[in-house]
Amino acid sequence: MKNIVILISGGGSNMAAIVRSAQQQRWEQHYGARVVAVVSNKPDAKGLDFARAQGIATEVLEHPPFPSREAFDAELARVIDRYTPTLVVLAGFMRILSPGFVTHYAGRLLNIHPSLLPAFPGLHTHQRAIEAGCKFAGASVHLVTADLDAGPIVDQAIVPVLPGDSAALLAARVLTQEHLLYPRAIVQLLS
Ligand code: GAR
Fold this sequence. Notes:
The protein has helices at 13-24, 27-31, 47-53, 69-81, 99-104, 125-131, 167-190; strands at 2-8, 33-40, 57-60, 85-90, 109-113, 136-143, 153-160. It is an alpha/beta fold. The chain has a domain at 2-105: Rossmann fold. It has a 7-stranded mixed sheet, with helices on both faces. The relative contact order is 0.16.
């Protein structure tokens, strides 16, 4: 069985889209894959409620008690590894990961970033795309490497930037496509 562990920090709409796709497309039957756990670094992450309602194991690990990023990441890896993951999927997990963590999961750590990488790594992607006068924006699913938002791209989705767009409007348009893109990219890796 290929176990998928999903990491979230907030709304978890990408996580929910992955879980729904796994159910609707019968990933267990076709790819021998299932979402086994959802891990959040925020106890109030909305996505945890969805995961619990789906009967998926949930874990919460907050960083304040840990003396360093490395110490937190080591414990995070311990929690994740209990589920023997084939894939670790970052879905709106808003923390920079230490090189040790990234190396530990090399080749099986995926992230979704709300821009057409390599354009606009980092934060405030939608505002920056609007200010740059981009006619198209989108999202990228990529393998995570030590360099922020710079690993090999698995797949991308493109949306138009429309006249009068605000960052919020553009973010919502991109997010709708993220929900199709992320499950599709995971299937590519499972196939
Ligand atoms: C998504 O738009 C995702 O691309 C972005 O956070 C949002 C999470 O939404 N991720 C990043 O900005 C990572 N740098 P969700 O919690 O509803 O899936």
